[in-house]
Known about the structure:
Distance between the termini: 12 Å
Order of helices and strands: EEHHEHEHEHEHEEEEHEHHHEE
Radius of gyration: 19 Å
Number of strands: 13
Amino acid sequence: MTTIAAVRTALPPHRYAQEDLTEPIGDLCLPPGADRTVLRRLHASAGVCTRHLALPIERYAGLGDFGQSNDAWLAAGLDLGEEALTGALEEAGLTPADVDLLVCASITGIAAPSLDAQLAGRVGLRPDVKRLPVFGLGCVAGAAGLARLHDYLRGHPDDTAVLLTVELCSLTLQRRDDSRANLVAGALFGDGAAALVARGSGSAPSDAAVPSVVATRSRLYPDTGQLLGWSVGASGFRVVIDAGVPGVVRDHFGRHLRAFLAEHGLTTDDIGTWVCHPGGPKVLAAVSDTLGLPANALDTAWDSLATVGNISSVSVLHILQNTRESRPEPGTWGLLLAMGPGFCSELVLLRW
């Protein structure tokens, strides 16, 4: 099995209370004099209390085009990526030279050479490190990235693999775009990075308190590609968030999740820790309802949403870090899950 040796989140220093962002985001997104009733209602109902932003809020008005936003993504992303990566390796008792594979996921900016390539020399990765930059998975990339690390380590049991996710969602906010999707994004998303260190069975740490990956499952839902993603244009990444997402969760997600658990002789009652991406209040409620979970089962997801917002692929790793720090009892079953563009889901069965 793959052992998760460390998880570390890095958040920008610019932290804001939700109520302190509502009017500045309205200034960015709405035309002068526009009614702000919907904007204020979305901010109040998003389940978010505080968020971290890549830049001070007053600097966003000066980002005149996609190129400037993307430059800001690269500069802040390199700093946060380095902090998360070096912190996770230190926690695992490893050095950058120990990394055999680096998977780097981001959907909020682009670069060539990629973010991971630019980090390699900066942090001291080996020249022969294997790299896999990933774009397009969005919120599901934290779970899917861990699953792909597990796939790799099954074939390379003596290796160390790292997943790095960097998401600066605030830099994709569209100026003078009063669409509901853009306003929802402006109320819900935050910024940050996270790194996860995984080791194969031949190099696993002896600490029994760390979780192992038992199995994974990927699922694409037919005819749902229009529900979530980007509409890419001259102004950059314009968010697509359809109100039908919770319905897909209710109609299909529970059945597939139960079938996955049943293959391992488990039911939802056997899962002691739920590491669920906090897509938003309606998505979390749909997951809880369709699975019939106890009232407190998704508390870590709700807490993460409240304290840092939805950080796309980073969020599920932030929640996993918090779950690890609570030190579940050895033998506890866990399920890490996320959903993203496609529309798709990814499940990772864990055991402590």
